[in-house]
Amino acid sequence: MSERSPLQNARFAYVPKMPEVFAASISDIKAVPTEAIEPSVDRKSLKAIFSHSYGKPAVKFSQGANIAASKPLIIGVLLSGGPAPGGHNVVAGLFDGLKRGSPDSRLIGFKGGPGGLVDDEYMEITAELVDSYRNSGGFDIVGSGRTKIETPEQFEKALANARSHKLDALVIVGGDDSNTNAALLAEYFAEHDAPITVVGVPKTIDGDLKNEWIEASFGFDTATKTYSELIGNICRDAASSRKYWHFIKLMGRSASHITLECALQTRPNVALVSEEIEAKSMSLAQVVEIICNSITARAAKGENFGVVLVPEGLIEFIPEIKVLIADINDLLAGEHEAFVALKGVEAQRAFIREKLSAKSSAVFSSLPDQIQTQLCWDRDPHGNVQVSRIETEKLLVSMVRERLAKMTAEGSYKGKFDYQTHFMGYEGRCAFPSNFDADYCYSLGFTAYLLSLYGFSGYIASIRNLAAPTNEWIPGGIPLVSMMNIEHRHGSDKPVIKKALVELQGKPFLYYASQRDKWALSADYRLPGSIQYFGPPAVTDASTMTLQIERS
Ligand code: FBP
């Protein structure tokens, strides 16, 4: 990447817009505790696990005399999990905040995610380094990783390394699993009387780390704009070539926020929403029926083409497969060694088939071999099935073909069916951040600095009022524990941050549901085009439709 593109050069010069309160000098920004917030479920267990962190209030920053001197700080930062556009601006905002507080402050970057903290792989983040990454996509300034800090040795090493660097604070930029790590580390540091503040920053393209205080996770805006551009292009190709149904699987892990946002942006013929499919207890056959209904109705108009959006976590939400996955998870957690010792995928599939309950075994056997194998692949370090590696779009295509072949034989379908499959995910995770993400991330980094300065340990940076112009944004923080619940992972119950899935009573889904019957029949696609970084603010600064509809 030694040669820079003209856009790269131009983006270095972009100055992120910030909430008005951040225009003041650090000594004129005060932290105001607001209401106490508690987790919505599992309070008793969480209180017992997080005895030092539980029950703290939300905080917001506003103008006023700062009681903490802007003393020199040493902060460590790590980027965790999948990349999301804007991560470099979090580092830039944190760095600039630190230096505005005191030119003697230092920022240390742990390399390759939480593993870098445990193994003490680090680098000094200098002004020169930050300047060469401003407003750029990717996490490559220090790299990222998915190590879960969970064994006593890992916690001891993390604390020893934080102490050896004399850290005043550690900032963890990550999604739900990484911020769970942040909450556990904050509690561990407090238990061991280590005055090291741990602060989380809400990152994930998946958009599932949100609530009343975290209106959006960073990266969702840019990633969905990138996918929507490509989907819009495919829609137009479909309408031009008039010969393919395009099945597009979209990242998002469990949640369908990405699919829903892209559907609002592009108006495809079908967009499946996993959360709805689960709520309606739909079988795989019923999901296939939804797609076939659109195909047959459009074929009747002579339009043998269309676009179907598939959230990558779909199969986890189909009740019978959800149970199957949970059973495989428990089986693999208990018999991992025996399983990995088996030679070849045939033997592994047979092992799973034999050990499962009769019901799950039958569901497993009903799936194509390829999908069976993919369901057995390693879980990630947090115990999640790696849904990005399961070819759900191909599974649906094969079932749709089968169904249409049957209908053709019966004489109830006379159209044609040709298809293309796509998977969009990695294409959007390192895009140049949109202006929204560039601004949001810079402000999140600055907020993380202030939370560190004030010693709000176990907090996650929060910026509210995001649908308003940037100067009206409201920065602050909330305790991470307030976002947690207890879940069954890797065969046992663990405290984790609760994923925020698509709400079926939420405005974005209700709007989509009110339009989809029309979109299923027509080719009235919407074409968002590519992200614009320069030009009229209505084009360059628009946030996602999800945010606009939610906050309208
Ligand atoms: P995070 O939750 O870490 O932000 O990751 C998001 C994501 O892009 C998911 O959408 C996807 O399922 C997963 O990462 C893919 O993981 P990997 O990068 O390990 O292939």
Textual characterization of the structure:
It is a single chain. α3 packs across α19. The protein is α/β, with parallel strands linked by helices and 552 residues long. 44% of the residues lie in helices and 16% in strands. It has 22 helices and 16 strands. The chain has 2 domains: 33-205 and 436-489, Rossmann fold (3-Layer(aba) Sandwich), CATH 3.40.50; 230-425 and 506-550, Rossmann fold, CATH 3.40.50.460. Bound molecules: 1,6-di-O-phosphono-beta-D-fructofuranose. 1,6-di-O-phosphono-beta-D-fructofuranose binds at residues 81-82, 84, 175, 204-206, 251-253, 312, 387-388, 425, 429.
Q: What number is the mean pLDDT?
A: 94
> Which small-molecule ligands are present, each listed once?
1,6-di-O-phosphono-beta-D-fructofuranose
Number of domains: 2
The portion of residues assigned to helices is 40-55%
| Shape designation | globular
Structural class: alpha/beta
| Largest sheet, strands/sense/barrel | 10 strands, mixed
| Total beta strand runs | 16
CATH superfamily of the largest domain: Phosphofructokinase domain
Give a quick precis of the structure:
This protein has 552 residues and is α/β, with parallel strands linked by helices. It is built from 22 helices and 16 strands.
Present the secondary structure layout.
Elements: H1 6-12, E1 29-36, H2 43-49, E2 57-63, E3 74-80, H3 87-101, E4 106-110, H4 114-118, E5 122-124, H5 127-131, E6 144-145, H6 152-164, E7 169-174, H7 176-191, E8 197-202, H8 220-241, E9 245-250, H9 257-266, E10 270-271, H10 274-279, H11 284-300, E11 306-311, H12 319-334, H13 336-341, H14 345-355, H15 358-366, H16 369-376, H17 392-410, E12 419-424, H18 426-429, H19 435-453, E13 459-464, E14 474-479, E15 484-489, E16 492-497, H20 507-521, H21 537-540, H22 545-551
Parallel strand pairs: 3-4, 3-6, 3-7, 7-8, 8-13, 9-11, 9-12, 10-11
Antiparallel strand pairs: 1-2, 2-14, 4-5, 13-14, 15-16
Helix pairs in contact: 3-19, 8-9, 11-17, 12-15, 14-15, 14-16
Bound molecules: 1,6-di-O-phosphono-beta-D-fructofuranose.
